[in-house]
């Protein structure tokens, strides 16, 4: 009895599912297919400004590593280094983490290291890295309050238009002609330039002229 009950319940569930599925499909056909707008996202090239930057400084003599926080426009002394942060940019949340800092680095003693002024990137430390005679400097991240440049508002998503596939129109009584030839028909262009399907039936013989018709009178 238990097996029969389970089979009966399964049959009832299948019938209900088919009925509900048919109702959903009929409602979809009645309302039509609606296009879904894509989610609005920031462009991959957008940046967000911060007023602080965290720098990693390694001393070459003993490989000591220290972290220094820089504020925009302030000059910070670290050993014989003089560091000035001009700008710090980072990617907004939801995008791959990346930071870029524009800094100016000078050494206060005659170590032979030229003044550095340019950009440093967290994802590419070799690009714009400072490698002096006594110190190596790299950017770690941006910090502090948000400043210009700021990312603008999210773009308004536009709903795509769904194109409907058209079919050639054919009259119900068979007198109308479709806009394109069907399979098995060859397009023939007559003397007057009109084109149309060529019949595959043998040509109908013309009726023989009767006596006294179609003949000219002799003078």
TrEMBL record:
Renumbered residue ranges of the record's region Disordered: 159-219
DNA damage in keyword set: no
A family per Pfam: DUF2155
Residues spanning the signal sequence: 1-30
Composition bias type Low complexity, residue spans: 209-219
Bias type Polar residues, positions: 177-189
Keywords: Signal
Keyword Ribonucleoprotein included in the entry's annotation: no
Annotated protein name in UniProt: DUF2155 domain-containing protein
Organism lineage string: Bacteria, Pseudomonadati, Pseudomonadota, Alphaproteobacteria, Acetobacterales
């Amino acid at each position: 009895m238990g097996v029969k009950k389970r089979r009966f319940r399964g049959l009832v569930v299948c019938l209900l599912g088919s009925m509900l599925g048919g109702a959903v499909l009929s409602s979809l056909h009645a309302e039509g297919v609606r296009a879904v707008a894509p989610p609005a996202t920031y462009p991959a090239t957008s940046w967000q400004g911060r007023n602080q930057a965290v720098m990693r400084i390694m001393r070459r003599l003993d490989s000591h590593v220290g972290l220094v926080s820089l504020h925009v426009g302030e000059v910070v002394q670290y050993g014989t280094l003089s560091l000035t942060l001009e700008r710090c940019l980072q990617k907004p949340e939801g995008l791959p983490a990346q930071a870029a800092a524009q800094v100016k680095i000078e050494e206060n003693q005659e170590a032979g290291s030229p003044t550095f002024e340019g950009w440093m990137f967290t994802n590419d430390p070799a690009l714009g890295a400072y490698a002096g005679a006594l110190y190596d400097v790299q950017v770690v991240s941006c910090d502090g309050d948000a400043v210009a440049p700021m990312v603008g508002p999210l773009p308004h998503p536009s709903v795509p238009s769904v194109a409907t596939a058209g079919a050639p129109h054919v009259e119900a009584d068979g007198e109308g002609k479709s806009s394109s030839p069907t399979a098995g028909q060859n397009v023939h262009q007559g003397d007057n330039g009109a084109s149309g399907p060529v019949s595959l039936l043998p040509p109908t013989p013309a009726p023989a002229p009767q006596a006294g018709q179609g003949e000219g009178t002799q003078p």
